[in-house]
Design a protein that fits this description.
- This protein is α/β, with parallel strands linked by helices and about 375 residues long.
- The chain folds into 2 domains: about 10-225, 3-Layer(aba) Sandwich (UDP-N-acetylmuramoyl-L-alanine:D-glutamate ligase); about 235-380, Protein-Tyrosine Phosphatase, Chain A, CATH 3.90.190.20.
- The protein has helices at about 10-20, 25-30, 50-60, 75-80, 95, 125-130, 145-150, 200-215, 220-225, 255-265, 285-295, 305-310, 325-335, 355-370, and strands spanning about 40-45, 65-70, 85-90, 105-110, 140-145, 160, 170-175, 180-185, 185-190, 235-240, 245-250, 270-275, 295-300, 315-320, 340.
- The strands form 3 sheets. The chain has a 6-stranded parallel sheet with strand order 2-3-1-4-5-6.
- Helix 6 links the parallel strand 4 and strand 5.
- Helix 3 packs across helix 9, helix 8 (about 200-215) runs antiparallel to helix 9 (about 220-225) and helix 13 crosses helix 14.
- The N and C termini lie far apart (about 50 Å).
Amino acid sequence: MVVSPGIALDETAIAEAVRNGTQVIGDIDLFACSVAAPIVVITGSNGKSTVTTMLGEMANAAGIKAGVGGNLGVPALELVEQAAELYVLELSSFQLERTKVLNATAATVLNITADHLDRHADISDYAAQKQRIFAGDGVMVINADDPIVAAMQEGGRRTFTFSINKKADFWIGKDQDNEYLMYGEKPLLPLSELPLEGRHNAANALAALALGMAVGLDGQAMCKALKSFKGLAHRMQRVAEIRGVVWVNDSKATNIGACVAALQGYEQKVILIAGGDAKGADMNELVPVVRAKAKSVVLMGKDAGLIEQALNACVPVYKAATMQQAVNIAANIATAGESVLLSPACASLDQYKNYQDRGDKFTEAVLGLLDHDAPVEFPAAMAGL
């Protein structure tokens, strides 16, 4: 029985089939049995789509035909027909929980933060499913800054570590004037030439470089790809600057860790638009970074009240029923020189088709402000402190 990753294995019909002797596999095992080229696999709570796309572009820059997909873009099984020289797959915990024969040439868990706790028993179970990506004897790429991931390292395996906080195989080195993406003692690329904002994107670049090195990609080609990498739609995507206010779409931030990473990338305080389906996560984990990085928060969606309760008035909180209202509220709060960040920390399915739809609605509402000479007023009853 081939079971979609969107279906939990404890569903009654599936559990009964297993008890009766049926073998259950997922799409990734079926894929792994169907291709001969090297496979690189990427998972983590945050950044996996960015790293997957980065590595695919690195391979192309190096003249290697890469098939890129999995939990991102093209489904893994559709990649079989591409006859690629290298496969680069983003994998979710749902896909990994049913893998038994995957033996990737190189693999990484980028980070672990609370996510999908409506499906997994707890964060330990969630991390255990992510760790399955390291099954086999391929190269392990380990985030030395994440203690849960660092504990996954296995003795006797070829391993690359990366870090933005300390020296590792791939790390950020400094001289008197500049910072560099480093491989050991060798500078690879000035950090200033990475066209993405935020230290978390430096970590993503280091992970991609480590994976590329593990499969023998040319270093110069990889750095060339990084310098031209423009990022992903709905991931820290600058929508517009209107009357001095910068509007940023990070709708892909569907969990707390992604929102935290986005906020930590700012030096000045921002106006945060958040909310949706929290998926059982503990919203108290947002409080320290919101207190430090947010001027105010506009909440919407199914679990807006849950987030408001967790924040406990540590910053001014406003509530909106729709994205249009949220943007209007933010437009009234913001002043020139500030940023408004949509980084929901929640899934989108309570109000939208997916996170892309949510991001599109945000972009549409923001661009609609261009039709007004001044921000749209909102009823005072919509705001609550």
